[in-house]
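The authors assume throughout that readers already know how a fold can be written as discrete tokens. For illustration, here is how one protein appears when written out as sequence plus structure tokens:
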Amino acid sequence: MTGCSGAGKTTIATALEDRLVKAYGKHVYRLDGDNLRTGINRDLTFSEADRAESVRRTGEIATLFADSGVITLVGLISPYRGDRDAVRKRHEEQGIPFYEIFLDVPVDELKKRDPKGQYARVESGELKHFTCIDDPYEPPLQPEITLKTHELEIEQSADILFRRLEMDGILEGAPKLTPPGLPNPDGDEEIDLHVPAHLREERMAEAETLPKVLISDLDLNWLQVIGEGWASPLKGFMREGTLLEVLHFNSILVDPFNLTDNKDAHTSTTNFEKFTQFRAPDRVSMSVPITLSCTEYTKAAIDNSPHGAVALTTQMGNIVAILRNPEIYPNRKEEIATRMFGVIDMGHPYIKEIYKGGDYLIGGEVELLD
């Protein structure tokens, strides 16, 4: 939190700290001029060079606290933009979320508040080189949040900061992708696979050059389910590894934040000879195989194509999607039917659809053109 003296940095940080600790049981530590200048920064003056060193030291302390899992609230005037940017860079280099909060309060309002009597001392000439009066303050150009604390109650300001932390997953371990009150999509990732309008013509021209895969009406329905995110975290028709997880466990393991090097497990070609050392940390319910079948003729066309993609085409001849990096593997119809339904019965409409499919399945990620 940066801003002129009296803007409310310590007051708002204290209110936020109180809420995080007492209501949510979080580990929080607050750093500000009051608890830093009595110890770690006691050898520093208020010169420009010493102010820069104060911000640098505080930034390093903040990264150490954050690295240990502590939410660190820093309240410093920190008048120079370059010093703040350097601290941001240090956090980003270590993968630590960093928020610059600008407390934007007019100087006239600060003079009215004057909680420490410093502005009165400046007016009387007793205090010289005071930031925001006769020493410069460089406001942030693109802060994550701006608080006009003269227009907000203390709790309102603290609530704005709290909601941002909650929305970004700092309090729960996963970003909040949906409005308050709604759960995140499965896999903590919002999926929309439609090609942006400005790229559609280019992608359609590409699709015309690709091998065509004829899809059924059922495939088209599944394509809509995948493309609109209803089968999140799937981004395409299931690859062999994903299908086997579904058949055996009615679920798939996911790692949306790449904690175990498994983030791309379901979008990479299945390799049964190479597994990561650690298991993905989260399990998502997925009980229905979402697969795309093809004939041996189509398989040969894909195998002989120099392109790493295919065009999905309806029975009316309309190209509706591109499937990237196709993975072709045997369509083990009996295994799929028996593990899904526990029986082989051609009178069952879905089992009938499974057996109508070709001898191969195509897995891969899709881009919807329509």
